[in-house]
């Protein structure tokens, strides 16, 4: 039997399909569900086959099975699939089981109102950051991001904070994996920002994204690591360039974000 307690790196883009514990059928089923991440409401078997590279016959069997289980819903009129309500139940159960979100939410809202910015909590998933909570402090500048949205790793303060907290060997490995995913022309600038963010984290205790992801946004990010090192989350404050300066991030928003992180970690006793 395998070791159920072995660590699984949810950040990694690499998948070892040769691992004896790896079940290909499960991976294929989830690759189908991931096809809907990019805004497509309905997809046919042909669409899914093109996105996943799986044979259409395999896709047909898997989509039928997923629909039977409630994870996909089939439209006879369109002859296509959409996500099923069983996934919503799983998402709801996930959020209810994450006490850290409930603890962090009121503190995040307080900081969002103070900074008149957006405060976000996220976690790594296959080369992206998934938002677990978003608190908006400026009603006139609401970023169009909601819980469940995925943002880039290399150019956002949220993603850079996550990377900055990784052990150096893991950090270097993920740099190589992100380079493989990135368009070559953009990589030198993205890599430079990630490396600089790690240096800023060592110096300040937080890191920045100064218009790197969105030219209208300056942001500061901080990692939040569980006591056993098994889980890494990240927090950030993102505000309008017209309202936020680097100095304000360094002198005010950054230290307050660190204090928020420390308070959440203390309340959770390090068990994120």
Provide a short characterization of the protein structure.
The protein is of the alpha+beta class.
Describe this structure as you would to a colleague:
With 272 residues, the protein is an alpha+beta fold. It folds into 2 domains: 1-84, Arc Repressor Mutant, subunit A (Orthogonal Bundle); 98-267, Beta-Lactamase. 46% of the residues lie in helices and 18% in strands. The chain has helices at residues 24-34, 45-52, 56-68, 85-97, 99-115, 157-164, 168-181, 187-204, 246-267; strands at 72-75, 80-83, 118-125, 128-136, 150-152, 207-210, 217-225, 232-240. A hairpin with a 4-residue loop joins β1 and β2 (80-83). α2 crosses α3, α5 (99-115) runs antiparallel to α9 and α6 (157-164) crosses α8. The longest helix has 22 residues, at 246-267. The radius of gyration is 20 Å and the shape is globular. The model is unreliable at 1-8 (pLDDT under 50).
Q: CATH topology of the largest domain, which one? A: Beta-Lactamase
| CATH homologous superfamily caption of the largest domain | GAF domain
Write out the strand line-up for the largest beta sheet, numbering strands in chain order.
5-4-3-8-7-6
Strand content: 15-25%
Kindly, what is the distance between the CA atoms of the first and last residues, rounded to a whole number of angstroms? Answer: 28 Å
Output mean pLDDT: 90
**Topology as a string of helices (H) and strands (E):** HHHEEHHEEEHHHEEEH
Q: Biggest sheet: strands, sense, closure?
A: 6 strands, antiparallel
CATH top level assignment of the largest domain: Alpha Beta
Q: What is the count of β-strands?
A: 8
Name given to the CATH architecture of the largest domain: 2-Layer Sandwich
Q: Tell me the number of structural domains.
A: 2
Number of helices: 9
* Sheet/helix structural class: alpha+beta
Uncertain regions spanning at least 5 consecutive residues: 1-8
Radius of gyration: 20 Å
Shape descriptor reads globular
Report the helical percentage: 40-55%
């Amino acid at each position: 039997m395998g070791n159920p307690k072995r660590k699984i790196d949810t950040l990694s883009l690499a998948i070892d399909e040769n691992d004896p514990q790896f079940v290909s059928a499960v991976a294929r089923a989830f690759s189908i569900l991931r096809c809907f991440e990019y805004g497509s409401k309905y997809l046919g078997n042909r669409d899914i086959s093109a996105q996943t590279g799986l044979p259409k016959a395999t896709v047909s069997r898997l989509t039928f099975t997923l629909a039977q289980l409630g994870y996909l819903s089939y439209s006879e009129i369109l002859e296509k699939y959409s996500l099923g309500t069983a996934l919503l139940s799983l998402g709801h159960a996930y959020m209810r089981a994450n006490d850290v979100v409930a603890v962090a939410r009121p503190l995040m809202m307080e900081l969002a109102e103070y900074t008149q910015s957006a405060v976000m909590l996220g976690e790594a998933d296959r080369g992206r950051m998934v938002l677990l909570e978003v608190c908006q402090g400026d009603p006139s500048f609401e970023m169009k991001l909601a819980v469940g949205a995925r943002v880039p790793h290399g150019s956002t303060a949220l993603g850079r904070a996550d990377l900055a907290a990784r052990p150096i060997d893991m950090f270097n490995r993920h740099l190589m994996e992100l380079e493989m995913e990135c368009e070559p022309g953009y990589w030198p600038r993205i890599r430079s920002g990630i490396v600089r963010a790690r240096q800023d984290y060592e110096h300040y205790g937080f890191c920045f994204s100064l218009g790197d992801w969105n030219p209208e946004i300056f942001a500061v990010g901080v990692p939040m690591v569980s006591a056993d090192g098994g889980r890494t989350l990240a927090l950030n404050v993102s505000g309008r360039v017209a309202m936020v300066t680097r100095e304000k991030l360094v002198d005010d928003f950054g230290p307050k974000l660190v204090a928020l992180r420390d308070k959440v970690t203390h309340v959770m006793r390090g068990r994120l």
